[in-house]
Design brief:
The structure holds two protein chains of two kinds. By secondary structure, chain A is an all-beta fold. Chain A is built from no helices and ten strands. In chain B, strands 2, 5, 6, 10, 11 and 12 form a six-stranded mixed beta sheet that branches. Chain B has a four-stranded antiparallel beta sheet with strand order 3-9-8-7, with no helix packed on it. Chain B starts with a strand and ends with a strand. Classes of the chains: A mainly beta, B mainly beta.
């Protein structure tokens, strides 16, 4: 079966540009998460969507970061005016959520973002 | 706040020997604990979880983990390591807001 799909797999862009990262969760998964993985910071939570509820944005590092989830499925993470410290691997995960809240999160292979 | 600690940076083990990757946790309330493995340029793969029940949890690829409440530990184990087990291993705890808090990760190197 299809897993979590992320695109692009790699993105190189110049400082100051905006970037959009896409995540296609596993079909039927109501919960979707974004994490950031970097050498100095390890794995950091960014944002969490559960069904139609308001997202938990508590992990977003600045107002340059935003995310949306359309139709309860695909999600886009947008970084505006990118900075070099935004360079990292951005991981998306999905899980059943709801009654299946203790089910594991399933991760995509990530988008490796490099800011020149 | 819920957190986990992985005290070692790297674990080296000879192929065929037992493998242990350590994790301790700090939670308020019941712990919901997970182990994930990450291969180069890949996302995290779920290995096993502890929610409730038996303290010995069996997972994928021959891995198991022992939940120890008195020592607040959840160490990952494999009786006989394979070279293909060389990877980055993460312990994680689910917080009350359903987010995962990860440890820093342990690089496991299995020596042929």
């Amino acid at each position: 079966g299809a897993g979590v799909s992320q695109s692009p797999s790699n993105k190189v862009t110049e400082k100051g540009k905006d970037v959009e990262l896409r995540c296609d969760p596993i079909s039927g998964h109501t919960a979707l998460y974004w994490y950031r993985q970097s050498l100095g910071q390890g794995l950091e939570f960014l944002i969490y969507f559960q069904g139609n509820s308001a997202p938990d944005k508590s992990g977003l590092p600045s107002d340059r970061f935003s995310a949306e989830r359309t139709g309860g499925s695909v999600s886009t993470l947008t970084i505006q005016r990118t900075q070099q410290e935004d360079s990292a691997v951005y991981l998306c995960a999905s899980s059943l959520g709801g009654q299946g809240i203790n089910q594991p999160q399933h991760f995509g292979d990530g988008t490796r973002l490099s800011i020149l | 706040a819920q957190s986990v600690a992985q005290p070692e940076d790297q674990v080296n083990v000879a192929e065929g020997n037992p493998l242990t990757v350590k994790c301790t946790y700090s939670v308020s309330g019941n712990p919901y604990l997970f182990w994930y493995v990450q291969y180069p340029n890949r996302g995290l793969q779920f290995l096993l979880k502890y929610i409730t029940g038996d303290n010995l949890v069996k997972g994928s690829y021959g891995f198991e983990a022992e939940f120890n409440k008195s020592q607040t530990s959840f160490h990952l184990k494999k009786p006989s390591a394979l070279v293909s087990d060389s990877a980055l291993y993460f312990c994680a705890v689910r917080d009350p807001n359903n987010r995962l808090a990860f440890g820093k990760g342990n690089q496991v190197v299995v020596i042929p």
